[in-house]
Fold:
Amino acid sequence: MPVTKVEGVRKDHKVFIYTLTTCGWCKRTKEMLKEAGIEYEYLDVDVLKAEERQKAIEDLRHRNAPIGFPVIIVDDSKVITGYDPAKIKEALGLS
Structure:
């Protein structure tokens, strides 16, 4: 799958985001992380081929995440659905 990595000076957490290219909240989440210097990876689900999209959806279901975007996964254990700056900052120790 075509995962994109965004370099950052803060690498103390593994951050992965499932996004859509058309989602304004996804763009805001990426901007917030970039401004904070957080390194992260993301996957634009809407541009995936059908088979890859199905794998992404299966991963979200496996994590008991609602199918809504963005979905932020911190350290493979914390799942945050939607643009929620307070929860994201708390999960990353930024609050």
The longest strand covers residues 15-19. The chain has a mean pLDDT of 94. The first helix runs from residue 24 to 35. Strands lie at 4-6, 15-19, 40-44, 71-74, 78-81.
